[in-house]
């Protein structure tokens, strides 16, 4: 396993497109295929990411895009390579109806904005332009509709702003 990637914190408002909409109980390992969950090689994962769903996905994603999920997004074992692959492509956040607790803990630790927004999975389709204010947990759908979710706690905001829990802890302890 290689060293953790260094992803910058997201802007206050993430403006991008919906790169993909997943259904309920989606196992995050399926993004790259279970057989590839031990790889952190960016080039290798780029060739595997979303191949089972959309072979052109990796070429279509742009920095600032988001993925959307239904209920219990990230179900299964919380392996990091699927989100590493998505973040390497530019995925800036995940918006879902709800998250699997293990996935939420692991990816929040890594500084990924995971925002719970009821109704998101049926309100958007792949390719829709959106603006996500991740601190306020609001999604502007660009057509006059704004969905409201559950804002992250103050501690989670600090974790995301720092680029992950480890960076935040190191910064906090460097001050003592």
Please tell me about this protein's structure.
This protein has 176 residues and is α/β, with parallel strands linked by helices. Helices cover 28% and strands 18% of the residues. It has 7 helices and 7 strands. The protein has helices at residues 42-46, 57-60, 81-89, 101-109, 120-123, 154-162, 165-174; strands spanning 13-21, 66-69, 93-96, 114-116, 129-133, 138-140, 146-148. Strand 5 and strand 6 form a beta hairpin. Helix 6 packs across helix 7 (165-174). The protein is globular.
Chain-wise SSE layout:
Layout: E1 13-21, H1 42-46, H2 57-60, E2 66-69, H3 81-89, E3 93-96, H4 101-109, E4 114-116, H5 120-123, E5 129-133, E6 138-140, E7 146-148, H6 154-162, H7 165-174
Parallel strand pairs: 1-2, 2-3, 3-4
Antiparallel strand pairs: 1-5, 5-6, 6-7
Feature tags:
single chain, 176 residues, alpha/beta, 7-stranded mixed beta sheet, 7 strands
Order of helices and strands: EHHEHEHEHEEEHH
Largest sheet, in brief, is: 7 strands, mixed
Per DSSP E runs of 2 or more residues, the count of β-strands stands at: 7
Please work out how many helical segments DSSP would assign.
7
Overall mean pLDDT stands at 93
**Rounded radius of gyration (Å):** 15 Å
Strand content: 15-25%
Query: Order of strands side by side in the largest beta sheet?
Result: 4-3-2-1-5-6-7
The structure class reads alpha/beta
Low-confidence stretches: none
Distance linking N and C termini: 31 Å
Shape: globular
